[in-house]
Amino acid sequence: MGSIVEPRSHNDYTIGWVCALPKEQAAAVAMLDKEHDDVRKPPGDPNSYTLGSVGKHNIVIACLPKGQPGTNPAATVATWMASTFPRIKFGLMVGIGGGVSRKVRLSDVVVSTSVIQWDMGKAKEGGSFERTGALNNPPTALLTALSKLESKHRRFGSKITKYLAAMGEKCPEMVREYLRSDSLEDVLFKASYAHVKASVADDDEEEDEEEEESCRRCDKTMAVERKLRDSPNPRVHYGLVASGNQVIKDGVFREKLKKDLGGHVLCVEMEAAGLMNNFPCVVIRGICDYADSHKNDAWQEHAAATAAAVAKELLQQVSADDVEREPAVKDLMNQDAPTRVTGLHLAAYFGVDRAVPDLLYRYGRDPEDSHGRTPLSWAAENGHEAVVRRLLHLDADRQREDDAGLTPLDWAKKGDHQAVMKLLVSEDTGSLPPSVDDEKALPVAPDPSQASTGETTVRLLIDKDVGTNLVDSEGQTALVQQAPRGSDAAVRLLLHCQGANRTPRQTPLLWAAAEGHLTVVRQLLETGAEVGLTDDRGRTLLSLAAGNGHGEIAKLLLEQGAQAESADDQGRTPLSWAAANGYEAVVRMLLDKGAKADSVDEEGWTPLLRAAASKHDATVQLLIAGGANPDLARLMLPTLQVLEAERRPQPQTAEDESTLQSEAAEDESTPQSQTAEDESTLQLWAAENGYEAALKSLLDIRGSIDSTDEKVGAMLACAIEKGNIDAVRILLDKGASTNLVLTEGSPPPPPAAVNGPTHPPGAY
Nearest Cα to 564, choosing from 535, 548, 542? Predict the structure, then answer.
């Protein structure tokens, strides 16, 4: 491994290196000239970084969360990287991929000159599919370096074998897996020939996993005959990379994709599309399979090593001065966010053509956002043919240039939206639905039956050019309003817009977690929201989700690093909230993640007592199986029953009963969370009313008590006042001080100390 050097600051690092798999990260770190000490991470950053240098460049290496390949996790990693290291100028996405072109062989390396997202697009008439995911090109500094590198490769060949040999000397443990061995076979089967799996009889044979994954049962006569190369050394190819969120393991589909993309695509992979629109980078892929059913893991480590070697070669061609001149990724992410977005812009963005006449009458034909872009420009970029046709029919300006000098046609070309491009160059916009007034766009009443998320958003978010960062009378921004509604598309746009209340408290995330909107929670987390966020009562996202029974959100939060034992201001854990409401699946999940079944909150309640008080018997049994004290429920059950009876007033008349039912219904629908000052503790009630066995059990669970705690003094005072000598003895034995007993003239205990502790409230 490279030598460890003195620590540096976050601002010293200018190039990011992103890997999808630990095996790719290992190869990346092995290619560093020097490895640096870690620097402090800001709270909430989930990434794990390795720092080092190649030549004159300081590098940040990050790996996607284990088991989460794909474009979205890659975007999350890159976003956090750019935030933590604010001078990152561009990135390298380095790892393994599947070969598509016939000229590409296993262990060869493909370097992207452009990337397309193959699984993004829209269905068209006749069953065809228009791909709309053409992504930004790499930055100038990288393109210049790529030209130099390709020229050197043509003249002298690559340095892959040299760097692999050096890696083997530095890291002998990597030799067996990462350097090529004679046991690796490079066989390309015909696209239509499927892999032959083990038969039932073969299942009884003892063989290791690698042997099981091999193609030893496949018919080698079905292999494609290819010309032998002059050298066994890997080659480097430059061209188109196709990225998507799905693994391709189908030779027929691979060939169709290649044909659909004009025969130019060299390889497929799963992460780059998540980076390239906002995180300028080059994709470097070592070929480990042919994206067919015969793919296995045998070549992965070696392919990861060859890709890392080419990445090192490329970095040595990048000028430090060129890097310095590039804008920081963090600035690029911010500068694209538009402001002055009107309702007509939103209708164009979402493709809501029915809303256009009304909104056009309100805002005019060509309102401009802060970048000088019109709704026609937005619709053209996103390929919304119906909106473009309607805007053109109503005389929107098709020649209007934005601040970057781009027309709507230019934006349509960027997304390769052929149908929209034809509309923009044609004088005939075609016929429109009969609901449109050809003479004048008059306001039309919205049709609730046709309202989509986009149309609702258009109606609710922005009126009279109100920005997304402004607040309503309750202090809520548009993002806060849309998150609890689960308006996924609206949230996505608002996160893109500047000033959408992305504050450290991330109130939208709290509401989305509590209301159960999984997609919104995922979107907000992927844009950098903190998984450890708390509300003004200290309740975590996990407590909010658990207390409302949102198991999928709780699972996501735990996967993102949420702490199962996080306690709020009352000392209540997510398990306490879930148990109080009888959400068995969430309780089981939290126990499996190590949540303590006997944790005690500030009021003296355990999850078991919360569940028992609410008569959730199945949850009680789950908690006992998870380690809760089974005697506690038995001892406390009479106490809890008395508490329940005393808490609920008894109706005297039919009118009283109706009123109480209404109040109960309101209680169940309203979030409740009394503070410690508003409630007495369970121990206090037990001490006052002579439930000595229950008091002792509760204090045993609590452990040592603070002799100066006024609550402990209140327990002792109540026990003395009521003449409960056994309770007094228990408290003194536990360390309560008589100095805290209320004396004559002291203020009386709060009403809660007399009325008994509050029944565990429902979470929300």
Answer: 542
> Measured between alpha carbons, how far is residue 219 from residues 121, 289, 297 in Å?
37, 17, 20
Q: What gap in Å lies between CA 531 and CA 540, rounded to an integer?
A: 8
Same CATH fold assignment for domains 337-467 and 481-637: yes
Amino acid at 533: L
| Residue bearing the bigger pLDDT, 414 or 745 | 414
Buried-state track 124-161, b at ≥16 Cβ within 10 A, e below 16: eeeeeebbbbbbbebbebbeebbeebbeebeeeebbbb
Residue 594 φ/ψ region, left for φ over 0, alpha for ψ in the -120 to 50 degree band, beta for the rest: left
Alpha carbon distance 146, 282 (integer Å) = 9
Q: What percent of the chain has pLDDT over 90?
A: 28
Ordered by start, the domain boundaries in the chain are 3-201+216-331, 337-467, 481-637, 672-755
Nearest partner of 297 among 178, 177, 210, 206, judged by Cα: 210
Phi, psi of 141 (to 5 degrees): -60, -40
Q: What DSSP state is assigned to residue 570?
A: T
| Residue 255, helix vs strand vs coil | helix
Q: What are phi and psi of 325, to 5 degrees?
A: -80, -20
- Fold category of 481-637 in CATH: 1.25.40
Higher pLDDT, 459 or 101: 101
CB 80 within 8 A of CB 329: no
Q: Which fold has domain 672-755?
A: 1.25.40
Cβ atoms of residues 366 and 395 within 8 Å = no
Inter-residue contact 363 to 465 (CB < 8 Å): yes
Residue pair 33/99 in contact by the 8 Å Cβ criterion: no
Q: Count Cα neighbours of 415 within 13 Å in the Cβ-side half-sphere.
A: 22
Q: What's the pLDDT tens digit per position in 267-312?
A: 999 877 666 556 788 999 999 999 998 888 889 999 999 999 999 9
| Burial status of residue 165 (CB atoms within 10 A of its CB: 0-12, 13-18, 19 or more) | exposed
User: Phi/psi of residue 458, each to 5°?
Assistant: -55, -40
Burial per residue of 608-646, b for 16 or more beta-carbon CB atoms within 10 angstroms, e otherwise? bbbbbbbebeebbebbbebebbeebbebbeebbeebeee
Alpha carbons 370 and 355: distance in angstroms, whole number: 22
Within 13 Å and on the Cβ side, how many CA atoms surround 581? Answer: 23
Whether pLDDT at 704 is above 80 = no
DSSP state of 559: H
- 140-156 helix and 300-317 helix, angle to the nearest 10 degrees: 110
The kind and range of the H/E element at 256 are helix 251-260
- Determine contact, residues 502/533, Cβ cutoff 8 Å: no
**Residue pLDDT, tens place only, 507-523:** 677 878 887 888 878 87
Contact of 479 with 495, CB cutoff 8 Å: yes
Radius of gyration of the chain (CA): 32
SS3 labels along 478-508:
HHHHHCCCCCHHHHHHHHHCCCCCCCCCCHH
Q: Return the residue matching tokens 């977690």.
A: 513
Per-residue pLDDT tens for 455-472? 344 333 333 333 434 333
CB 702 within 8 A of CB 604: yes
Contact 570, 603 (CB under 8 A): yes
Selected from 1.25.40.20, 2.40.50.140, 1.10.10.200, 1.20.120.1200, the CATH number assigned to the domain covering 337-467 reads: 1.25.40.20
The C-alpha atoms of residue 595 and residue 554 are separated, in whole angstroms, by 13
CA distance 122 to 124: 6
Right CATH for 3-201+216-331 from 3.30.70.100, 3.40.30.10, 3.20.20.140, 3.40.50.1580? 3.40.50.1580
Q: Where is average pLDDT lowest: 165-169, 450-454, 657-661, 741-745?
A: 450-454
| Distance from C-alpha of 513 to C-alpha of 745, rounded to nearest angstrom | 48
Mean pLDDT, to the nearest integer, of 743-754? Answer: 35
Reported pTM: 0.48
